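Below is how a single chain appears once it has passed through the pipeline. First comes the sequence as given, then the structure the pipeline wrote out for it. We keep one example in the README because the format questions we get most often are answered faster by looking than by reading.
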Amino acid sequence: MIKIIQYNLLALVAVFVARYLIVPMDHFNSDIGNYLWLPMGAVILAYLLFGFRVFPGLLVGYLLAEVVVEGGIANFAQHEVVSRVINTLLPLLSIWLMRKLNFSNFIVANKLNYVQLVPLVVLSAFTTTIVKAGLLYAPEQFSAGKVYFQSYVQGDILGGLIFIAVVFTIFSPALIRNKII
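Resulting structure:
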């Protein structure tokens, strides 16, 4: 039970820090996504290292980060909550799907298996963007190009891969020493 709490706290901090780091890259127009969405990598990596039980930590980390970024709870819109639930849940479903398709060796011999990790990040990026577009934006806005699909997908892919690569480059010895990988 202690490990689950620790893992949730690590996941919370990872998502919070990843989201906070990219604030300077946020676009003033929410129709254009952040071109380097680091939290995608934090979410995927937390699931791969700690399992599905870190869902609460990831979601709380996302929500806390958004409250801070938005300047308080009063400026926090309902669609942000739905968006962050989607951002937290869809990568988990992507991992599940890839495991069902026998693409489950994301970490091999304490090293990232980029051959399978890249499709996971791409699948997660597409699914989160498609679901958010369908639930949060009116179809006419999306089809008219008001919501720039490619900026959201591109940001999720680049941010996801960069976050994971940086974490494994910097923290790999600590992850191995603590038997996380």
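The radius of gyration is 16 Å.

See the next section for the split statistics.
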